[in-house]
Design goal:
28% of the residues lie in helices and 25% in strands. With 447 residues, the protein is α/β, with parallel strands linked by helices. It folds into two domains: 344 residues, Rossmann fold (3-Layer(aba) Sandwich), CATH 3.40.50.12780; 91 residues, GMP Synthetase, Chain A, domain 3, CATH 3.30.300. Strands 4-5-3-6-7-8-9-10-14-13-12-11 form a twelve-stranded mixed beta sheet, with helices on both faces. Strands 19-18-17-20 form a four-stranded mixed beta sheet. A hairpin with a 2-residue loop joins β17 and β18. α1 crosses α5 and α6 crosses α7. The longest helix is centred in the first third of the chain and has 22 residues. The protein is globular. The N terminus is likely disordered. It binds zinc ion (ZN). Zinc ion (ZN) binds next to loops.
């Protein structure tokens, strides 16, 4: 789960933006068959382009094309899924020799991703515009006023926006260039320092990783939390659990609004105002949730997130495995929109625990239950062997005693009966190279 906030500075043509947003405001109400037809048109355009203009897709998409050059969509699931390793190893083979005129010159970005290994990506202006306008629609849904101030607290490369000052500039969204934006690098500031900085700049809105918002909420206490005067928190980049949401919302007195996307294709889904579920950004991506056999997973079942971006022409991403697992919902949303819904983003592939009986599971334990057994300021549960889990924690108080048996019992009840818990007190728990935090991490060799 990556963010694409760094592209917000790209300048866009006002008139085109307005028309794009108008179109999104209409398309969100399309019936299911009309949305399918809409997506099919966008999909065909990018598929034909990628097949004609790139070396990789010339081969990968050949199964779709008949002798007469028409597309046989029944073969879609025979198109190989593209994974991150292939992109890393062969990114040039995904670059298009030429692009249709309105796409314009791409920007090259390099991302470390969650694994820390860099990847080269070409981002088209058109794709950036699609994401900005989807953001604008998301702000519409939640009554967010883009003329107000925003603080962005996340990791930035090369020590940018360092504590104690961070930085102040203007224009956090294409629609309002004057609004103040404050930025602070989490790699340079402890949670206490972040709170001090927030208290100083008093933003209306706050963007950060869910785990960081949780740490802020757990450190600040409700009185001071509400005194910050936040109107909403925007989260991205990690899984949001129900108990995390309720702690953040109660302490900070502001709703937690989540978006999900990737650096490769931009926005994939965004939380609805009528529930905590996400609506798929169906105008930007064709989303598939696939089971272990590569077939469409049923609603309610976790599966791999595989996306095709509609607006990436310089470097198309077709059937790209983002590296996350999510669950689709079959329910109709009470907001009345027919956009598909994601029930839950369950986590990164590397969060999936595997056990000695061959089973596997996305681990989850309620925060309240863990706190009863192990009071902590920070926690990471890492599987280091099929039957062994390290519980790394930053103690709440010095000389804190740990009931290892109770901890093992908790893990056995919630995760798997074969597990033994090994508590390890730490001074701090490092975030990944991308700045994100994994509360559950499988450190076994990947199968
Ligand atoms: Zn809805």
């Amino acid at each position: 789960m990556s963010d694409y906030a760094d592209q917000t500075t790209l300048k866009q043509d006002e008139e085109t933006r307005r028309r794009f947003l108008d179109a999104l405001r209409k398309s969100q109400w399309l019936s299911k068959p009309d949305m399918d037809a809409y997506q099919r048109r966008l999909l065909e355009r990018v598929v034909r382009h990628a097949h004609a203009e790139t070396d990789y897709y010339r081969q990968a998409l050949s199964v779709l094309f008949t002798d007469h050059g028409s597309i046989d969509w029944r073969r879609w699931q025979d198109v190989p899924v593209l994974n991150r390793e292939t992109v890393q190893a062969k990114s040039e083979r995904l670059f298009a020799r030429s692009v249709p005129q309105p796409v314009g010159q791409p920007t090259e970005i390099r991302t470390s991703g969650s694994t820390g290994r860099p990847i080269r990506i070409l981002w088209d202006r058109l794709a950036a515009m699609a994401c900005h306008m989807l953001d604008a629609r998301f702000y519409d849904w939640h009554g967010i006023e883009t003329g107000r101030s925003l603080a962005i607290v996340k990791s930035f490369p090369k020590g940018a926006h360092a504590f104690p000052k961070g930085s102040r500039s203007s224009g956090w969204h294409a629609s309002s260039r004057e609004a103040a934006v404050f930025q602070l690098n989490t790699l340079t500031a402890t949670v206490e320092q972040q709170i001090e900085w927030l208290d100083d700049c008093r933003p209306d809105y706050l963007t950060s990783y869910p785990s960081n918002l949780l740490e802020i909420a757990r450190t600040i206490g409700s009185r001071q939390g509400r005194a910050l005067g936040l109107k909403a928190c925007f989260s991205f980049g990690e899984t949001v659990s129900d108990d995390m949401r309720s702690i953040v919302e109660n302490v900070l007195g502001a709703p937690l609004l989540d978006r999900y996307g990737s650096t490769e294709v931009g926005q994939i889904s965004a939380q609805c105002h009528a529930s905590s579920r996400h609506h798929v950004s169906m105008e930007n991506v064709y989303l598939e949730i696939l089971d272990e056999d590569g077939r469409s997973a049923q609603p309610g079942e976790p599966g791999r997130v595989v996306v095709t971006g509609f607006y990436q022409y310089s470097m198309p991403f077709i059937r790209y495995d983002v590296g996350d697992y999510a669950i689709l919902s079959a329910q109709q949303c009470s907001c009345g929109r027919n956009l598909d819904q994601i029930e839950r983003i369950v986590g990164r592939a590397r969060s999936l625990f595997r056990f000695n009986d061959g089973s596997s599971k996305f681990p989850f334990i309620k925060l309240r239950e863990i706190l009863e057994v192990l009071p902590h300021r920070q926690l990471q549960i890492a599987q280091t062997d099929l039957d062994r889990v390290e519980v790394r924690y930053v103690p709440e108080t010095p000389d804190q005693l740990v009931d290892e048996a109770a901890l093992t019992r908790l893990l056995r009840q919630n995760l798997h009966p074969s597990l033994t818990a090994v508590p390890i007190a730490c001074e701090a728990i490092d975030r990944s190279a991308s700045g994100k935090f994994f509360d559950y991490l499988c450190e076994l060799d990947q199968p």
